Amino acid sequence: MKKIHAIIIERGPLSPKEAAVLRYLCEGYLQKQIALKLFRSQSTVGKHIESISRKLDSHCAAEIVSMSVAMGLVKVEIREQTNTPIKALLIFLIINMLFIQTDGRRPPRPIRTVRISRTIRTQRES
């Protein structure tokens, strides 16, 4: 699987926060995803994108990316993504399943005691 990787070469007229937003924008992340990555609110990231578009004289995200690459602010590479952590997790889960040897069914619900008037009886939780 291939992944786009962006490297900020030169900040130019952009602030450090705007450069970070631009990097993720060049990698194809959405505004909400960028906000989660940078621990900012979505509206703050939106303001950064507006500021970037004003400084680069562009009108949409695609134009921001193309202008930043053309101006030499960002270098975009396509890298082969390795799934090593996912493979390791799958191997770990398979080994655990082999050693535990469960039948895959859910455990029964616990029995609780219910007092109705003076007699005590047990019933399963529903």
Strand and helix layout:
Blueprint: E1 2-8, H1 16-26, H2 31-38, H3 42-56, H4 61-70, E2 74-80, H5 84-100, E3 111-116, E4 119-124
Antiparallel strand pairs: 1-2, 3-4
Helix pairs in contact: 1-3, 2-3, 3-4
Please give a handful of descriptors for the protein shown.
126 residues; alpha+beta; Arc Repressor Mutant, subunit A; two-stranded antiparallel ribbon; Sig_transdc_resp-reg_C-effctor
Structure description:
The chain is an alpha+beta fold. The protein has a domain at 2-80: Arc Repressor Mutant, subunit A (Orthogonal Bundle), CATH 1.10.10.10. 48% of the residues lie in helices and 21% in strands. The chain contains 5 helices and 4 strands. The protein has helices spanning 16-26, 31-38, 42-56, 61-70, 84-100; strands at 2-8, 74-80, 111-116, 119-124. The strands form 2 sheets. The chain has a two-stranded antiparallel sheet. Strands 3-4 form a two-stranded antiparallel ribbon. A hairpin with a 2-residue loop joins strand 3 (111-116) and strand 4. Helix 3 (42-56) packs across helix 4 (61-70). Residues 7-72 form the HTH luxR-type domain. Pfam families: GerE (PF00196). Keywords: DNA-binding, Transcription, Transcription regulation.
